[in-house]
Amino acid sequence: MKHWLSILALLVAGGLIWWFRPDGVSLVRGVAMGTGWTLAWRGDGVEGLEGEVARVLERWEGVMSQWREGSDLSRFNRGEAATEDLVRVMELAEGFREASGGAFDHRVLEKVHAAGFGPAGEG
Fold first, then answer.
1. In 10 A of CB 86, how many CB atoms?
2. Closest by Cα among 42, 46, 50, 47 to 25
3. Mean pLDDT score of the chain
4. Model confidence over 43-62: pLDDT tens digits?
5. For residue range 6-16, what is the model confidence (pLDDT) as tens digits?
6. Nearest to 77 by CA among 89, 94, 64
7. What is this structure's pTM?
8. Given a cut of 60, is residue 121 above it in pLDDT?
9. Which of 1, 79, 90, 110 is deepest in the core (most CB within 10 A)?
10. Cβ atoms of residues 117 and 109 within 8 Å
11. Which residues fall within 8 angstroms of residue 74, CB to CB, at 6 or more apart?
12. DSSP at 38
């Protein structure tokens, strides 16, 4: 029951935010990588923006998802060669790891799974 009340409260809050949004604010929404996204801006709307954003996010989900068996990342984690897109992401991640002195470390998959998160875990 508590779970349903939380969901109802979120839906009501979202509806109120939509209803009372400031004049001149355009919104588009969608779902990607298991969560919702919202873009808000002032000015004229852009026809087809929602579909374009959804296509770009879908493309990158196909590269980076650890939940999709066929994603570039999932295939790489099984020992297959990295795609050009995944290589670029890994290069950027390695640059962040080096620049942060290891505070940002993209090489933590085993630790994530050991903690019970990700597709191999229950978190």
1. 17
2. 42
3. 82
4. 777 788 888 888 999 999 99
5. 666 666 666 66
6. 64
7. 0.63
8. no
9. 90
10. no
11. 65, 66, 68
12. E
